[in-house]
Design brief:
Layout lengths: L1 H15 L10 E3 L5 E3 L2 H13 L5 H15 L2 H4 L2 H5 L4 H22 L1
Antiparallel strand pairs: 1-2
Helix pairs in contact: 1-2, 2-3, 2-6, 3-6
């Protein structure tokens, strides 16, 4: 569980990069009791643009951190990971690949 908290803290730091100094993006509690960090979709879209512009390194980790939350909010119900992978944007393809990896890891964990 500490790993999940670390990821949540890291994701919050990523998302905070979008807002003015002194502003704070909250986490919200969903009906199922899960907590989601707000700003994740906006931060992911910003990072996809940066990835498309050739930025790598931390951007890749930041995009990967967003994937579980993007699943929870239903983004991959709207556009499947395979659709992301087939897109023309390198950033979109990266997110799609990470989403597919997340699905495989989630299924493997559930099978144990």
């Amino acid at each position: 569980m500490a790993h999940d908290n670390t990821n949540a803290d890291d994701l919050k730091k990523v998302n905070q990069k979008l807002v003015a100094e002194g502003q704070d993006l909250p986490a919200v509690t969903m009906k199922d009791g899960s907590r989601l960090q707000t700003g994740t979709v906006a931060a992911m879209l910003n990072n996809v643009r940066r990835y498309d512009d050739g930025v790598r390194g931390d951007i890749e980790r930041e995009l990967e951190l967003s994937v579980p939350t993007l699943f929870k909010v239903g983004l991959f119900d709207l556009f499947t990971p395979d659709e992301w992978v087939r897109g023309s944007s390198p950033g979109r393809r990266f997110v799609g690949r990470k989403a597919l990896e997340h699905l495989v890891a989630t299924k493997a964990a559930a099978a144990q």
